[in-house]
Amino acid sequence: MDRRVFWWSLLLVGVICVPVMIAPERGQQALDAVLGLLTGQFGWLYLWFAIAVFGFLVWLGCSRYGKVKFGTEQDKPEFSTLSWLAMIFTASIGGGIMYWGVIEWAYYYSDPPMQLRSGSVEAAHWAATYPMFHWGFTAWGLFCLPALALAYVYHVRKQRTLRLSDACRGVLGKHADGWVGRVIDVLFIFGLVGAAGTSLGLEVPMVSGGLAEITPLRSGMVLDVAVIVVWTLLFGASVFLGLQKGLRRLADINIWLAFGLGAFILVMGPTVFMIDTFTNSVGILLQNFVEMSFYTDPVGGSGFEEDWTVFYWGWWISYAPFVGLFVARISKGRTIRGMIAGMCLAGSAGCWLAFALLGNTAMFYQIADIVPVADIVRSQGNVAGTMAALSQLPLGAIVLAVFVLLVVLFLATTLDSSAYTMAAVSSSELPRGADPARWHRVFWAVVLAAVSIALMYAGGLEALQTLSIITAFPLIFVLALVAESLRRWLRADHGGGGAPGDLVGSDNSSGDVPRSEFSGPPGQSHEENPVSAISQ
What we know:
The chain is mainly alpha-helical. Helices cover about 75% and strands about 0% of the residues. It comes from Actinopolyspora mzabensis.
């Protein structure tokens, strides 16, 4: 255990969470003011950064660096491709996609972008398209960037730890082992506690509502606590068993169950409408991708970009280091191009499929005047809207039961990987191929459950969620260091006319770029380059 990271992370969680629990309204007001300042004054920075990361990954995947393998040429992937993709998807956003997949379109339909009229045909078209944009290539690119850098420093440069600060080592050098690196790691753990803890707290009502719909049980505090206890036991047992026996099996079950539910909805739901709407949305997205990426509405002042796109990019950035650390750990034997394709293409396809099946089905019920889903969401909330839409399907009670089970399993996998990652970050050394200590993994699982229960009943979940988005602002600059570090490592190890396989697997345990291998511009020293790179 790295005591500095471990204890300072716990202290920061306590210092922030206790005041929020004591005075949630006042804390929420202060955080909302900060969030409003960041999204209102610096929203453009989130947009430019997200598209810059996307462009960097496109260049990287198409370059000769795309063939670089994470490990030696003889290393084979530790997991099958299906299990690898399942773990990435379920650990990243499985629970979130189940929560928003049914009803996100309803917000865009009622309050559309581009100054469109609420409830119009054009509003419906954009309402089906924007979820695919917010959960598509750009979003997954934000996840992929730290995953690439961490996988490279861990599997190729043989770094003995697996931390976000290690991904900045190419720029920070020895300072990654000092207080700068520890601050980065502590902020990472705190942000992850906030993001994962609020995910647990927000999705408990979804599970409770589903159970109340299909069983005699009543929604309330007792049922919510029971759900959290069962959830904690489930992902606690999985994280105790480790990657192979626990998380991989849980992820595989998730994916096959999701495929089964999706196939049922595709056949028994409004099939033609789903396919037509999805096809139309793909066309709108591809035709307007650049406009949507830079849409700020400065004249109309609708605030759509601040409320949704900037907020989403902040949410993805706050989760990105966690996803990067986890994906790096399970990606030995993969290539840079394979990881980019697996995350940005396969990840986006999985999200698009969820919105095509769940969201378009709910939209059909709205437009056909079968169930007023958008009105229910606006008046009764997300859980009520989701239950109303799914209950309308044939065998609605069974569909609801499977959906609730999927939410439980998806979020259990996310929290499992969260606890695993926090334990890895707060470990002083992690022998190659080894898992963090079992007690360490279970401890962080319990912390996540405790934070979510405490804040749920103190009314402070929204404050912690807001805070996790605020932490995304400094992470923009940290991820910029990550991108520059990766570029330097690749240029040093594979630049200067070297073949793509040169130096793969070299045992540079420090992770620093050797001075003799640094290939910056002529006349520029190794020390000067970080400053110039950041200023540029």
